[in-house]
Here is the input.
Amino acid sequence: MKVIVGYVRILRPINIIISVITVLICADILNELQNTPLLIYTIMTVVLFIGGANTFNDVHDINTDKINKPYRPIVCGDISMRSAKIYFIILILAGVGFCLFLPVQAVLIALLIAIPVMILYSIKFKSKPLLGNLLISFLLGLTFLFCGFVFGNVFPMIIPASLAFFLTLVRELTKDIEDYVGDNKSGLRTMPIVFGLNRSIKLVIFLALVTGLLSLIPYFINYYSWYYLIPLTLGVELPLALVVVSFMFSPTILTAKKSSVLLKIATIMGIISIHVGATYGC
Here is the structure.
């Protein structure tokens, strides 16, 4: 049972659930929920690719996870390194299998962009200052565009992709601050290590403010209705404001840990805000 739980945990279940909800919301916005076969293929593709990416990431992060996240399945011995590598291959191959049932444009995005970027991120770019953060943010935003190509309508996905990109970028930089000690001991060159904690925190504050302002634009240009504004204000603007204020008064690693949780909530609420705004119109 412990091994089975380990195989589930390495997928990051919360991230998997969020990805499923994201695909369902995209399909609903595009009025494609009734397209059951295509919806199932898309969900399975996204879930398997994200699960594979998380597994691959844990394989390559074992040294830093021993310090930053000792509860991870490989580190605590629930899954062996060899088993994790085999698991990654199975997940990706299964994802490719489901992906081949999707439209050609979506297949090309998945095989030529998403998978290579996911692998290169873990192997080479994760420890590159800011570049790694930008790549993972790009991948999260790409999920929305991928769904747009699957269902044949990319334009409505541009705003959700942009919001996901910026929220993820703020959270990824915050997580780098949170993981500063372990990353530094492992010889990684993340933003806080190369440019310092203070500069990194200032960048998080700046990006949080920019993200908060940009996320209001769809409402002010009447693209989304006030139905979008209410959950956005409570679920995105308020957490972003708390992150900014917290870092201003306490620029510490502990604040980064607390802020990371707030930003995950903000990401989920951002998706919900877009769904509500798009569903109820202007």
